[in-house]
Amino acid sequence: MIAGSKPVNLTPPASSGESTGRKKHLLDFQDWSVADIHALFDTTDVMAQVLERTIKRVPALQGFTVGTLFFENSTRTRLSFERAARAQSADVLSFAAGASSLSKGESMKDTLRTIDQMQSDVYVVRHVAAGVPYQLTKWTDASIINAGDGRRAHPTQALLDAYTFKKNFANFDHFEGKRLAIVGDVMHSRVARSNIELWTLLGGEVTLCGPATLLPRELEQFDKVTLTHNVYEAAEGAHAVMALRLQNERMTSGLLPSIAEYQERYQVTEKVMAEAHPDALVMHPGPMNRDVEIAGDLADSERSVIEKQVASGVPIRMAVLYTLLVGKK
Asked: Which domains does the chain have, with CATH numbers?
């Protein structure tokens, strides 16, 4: 053991409530209970201790192989999953669609079965089409982690967002009654959808705000979710305000009159945050366009936890990998 470092107990404390049993996949939160989420947060606390050590590695997943299958570009998510795997001594098998036989006409099913012969225990999958991670569960015995599928879901981003809130909101005690305001391009955001699912599962409330063309009315059907086109109304009393990037690469023409008008009506600023709870946190899932969806000075302010969200990504994803794989030992 390194001098001055403390041994880390990789057995997380028990959480209250009833777990739904050992997990094989993380596709969304449909079969995850509140107790499961809190147990994962407890494991994340332990993993965060690992990352504070002089040598930031433990043998928790030694002998396991993690395959990262990214059919869509990514920086933060891919790097943090690979960092999370290596911090637990797992082997990492990286796959990039552009340099694969998919570009030669091979089907995704045959590609996966070929990669499967290299004996990965879990695949981290990102794809532009919704539902692909679900489909892959039918073609492999390995665990599947959804790292983003179309507009549908991005569960580990929602987990790191909620964990960041939990660790940084003043005198945090529980999620019940806490309100998250999400402002911006909700229509194209899998992050928004996963945050809605997780935040309300944990007992919180969500207010969605954006232009009518970017705010799907069907999201209003979910319990504890409200919609508004007024950014000040959205922020009123909110415990966290999350700005979303305008996903221009996914948009068709006519969804926005102009960027200038969007900035005027929906940019999250200090003036907007004045309506929020006094201890409210400022959040952004990234990548961030300063002075478009969020004012640059606010992104750098003391109440901003944007960089802490990025930092939370590694221990959260360490905890997810550990939770899914330890049951196989």
From this structure: 34-154+311-328 (3.40.50.1370), 155-248+256-306 (3.40.50.1370)
Q: Are 227 and 209 in contact, with CB atoms under 8 Å apart?
A: yes
135-151 burial by CB neighbour count: b if 16+ within 10 A, else e? bbbeebebbbbbbbbbb
In the chain, what's the furthest Cα-to-Cα distance?
Answer: 61
Per-residue pLDDT at 301: 97
Helix (H) or strand (E) holding 243: strand 240-243
Q: Which amino acid is at 161?
A: D
pTM of the model: 0.92
Give the count of beta carbons closer than 10 Å to the beta carbon of residue 289: 15
Pairing of strands 240-243, 281-283: parallel
pLDDT the model gives residue 248 = 64
| pLDDT of the residue at 95 | 83
In angstroms, rounded to a whole number, what is the distance separating the alpha carbons of residues 78 and 219?
28
Q: Report residues of the chain scoring pLDDT below 70.
A: 1-17, 20, 97-105, 248-254, 327-329
Q: Tell me which residue of 247, 329, 238 sits closest to 288, measured CA to CA.
A: 247
Whether the CB-CB separation of 186 and 220 falls below 8 Å is answered with no
Partners of residue 294 on adjacent β-strands = 268, 290
Structure tokens at 259: 């960027």
| Contact partners, residue 110, CB within 8 Å, separation at least 6 | none
What pLDDT is stored for residue 311 in this prediction? 95
Strands of 143-149's sheet in order across: 91-96, 65-70, 122-127, 143-149
pLDDT given for residue 98 in this prediction = 58
Q: d(Cα 294, Cα 271) in Å, to the nearest integer?
A: 12
Amino acid identity at 261: E
How far is Cα 28 from Cα 190, in angstroms, rounded to an integer? 11
